[in-house]
Amino acid sequence: MEKLSGLSHLFMTIFLHTFATFMVIPGITDVTMAALCPGKDECSLAIYLTGFQQA
Protein backbone atom coordinates (compact mmCIF):
# COMPACT_ATOMS: atom_id res chain seq x y z
CA MET A 1 0.00 0.00 0.00
CA GLU A 2 2.92 2.35 0.61
CA LYS A 3 3.90 2.02 -3.03
CA LEU A 4 0.52 3.34 -4.14
CA SER A 5 0.67 6.35 -1.84
CA GLY A 6 3.70 7.56 -3.79
CA LEU A 7 1.57 7.53 -6.93
CA SER A 8 -1.31 9.52 -5.48
CA HIS A 9 -0.32 12.68 -7.37
CA LEU A 10 -0.55 10.74 -10.64
CA PHE A 11 -3.98 9.38 -9.73
CA MET A 12 -5.16 12.89 -8.91
CA THR A 13 -3.85 14.17 -12.25
CA ILE A 14 -5.71 11.44 -14.13
CA PHE A 15 -8.89 12.15 -12.16
CA LEU A 16 -8.72 15.89 -12.85
CA HIS A 17 -8.05 15.33 -16.55
CA THR A 18 -11.01 12.97 -16.88
CA PHE A 19 -13.29 15.29 -14.91
CA ALA A 20 -12.29 18.29 -17.03
CA THR A 21 -12.88 16.33 -20.23
CA PHE A 22 -16.44 15.51 -19.19
CA MET A 23 -17.05 19.15 -18.30
CA VAL A 24 -15.85 20.45 -21.70
CA ILE A 25 -17.82 18.09 -23.98
CA PRO A 26 -21.23 19.80 -23.47
CA GLY A 27 -19.57 23.17 -24.06
CA ILE A 28 -18.19 22.02 -27.39
CA THR A 29 -21.68 20.95 -28.46
CA ASP A 30 -23.19 24.31 -27.46
CA VAL A 31 -20.54 26.32 -29.32
CA THR A 32 -20.92 24.17 -32.45
CA MET A 33 -24.72 24.51 -32.33
CA ALA A 34 -24.49 28.29 -31.98
CA ALA A 35 -22.05 28.55 -34.89
CA LEU A 36 -23.85 26.27 -37.36
CA CYS A 37 -27.51 26.68 -36.47
CA PRO A 38 -28.13 30.00 -34.72
CA GLY A 39 -31.55 30.27 -33.15
CA LYS A 40 -32.47 26.60 -33.55
CA ASP A 41 -33.06 24.06 -30.79
CA GLU A 42 -31.71 21.09 -32.74
CA CYS A 43 -29.22 20.66 -35.55
CA SER A 44 -28.13 17.22 -36.74
CA LEU A 45 -25.01 18.60 -38.47
CA ALA A 46 -23.72 20.13 -35.24
CA ILE A 47 -24.33 16.91 -33.31
CA TYR A 48 -22.56 14.91 -36.02
CA LEU A 49 -19.54 17.26 -36.07
CA THR A 50 -19.31 17.24 -32.27
CA GLY A 51 -19.20 13.44 -32.26
CA PHE A 52 -16.56 13.52 -34.98
CA GLN A 53 -14.42 15.94 -32.93
CA GLN A 54 -14.54 13.63 -29.90
CA ALA A 55 -13.59 10.49 -31.84
Automatic annotation (TrEMBL):
Keywords on record: Membrane, Transmembrane, Transmembrane helix
List where the protein spans the membrane.
6-25
Q: Which domain of life is it from?
A: Eukaryota
Name this polypeptide is given: Putative tetracycline transporter
Q: Which organism is it from?
A: Corchorus capsularis
Q: Kindly list the organism's lineage.
A: Eukaryota, Viridiplantae, Streptophyta, Embryophyta, Tracheophyta
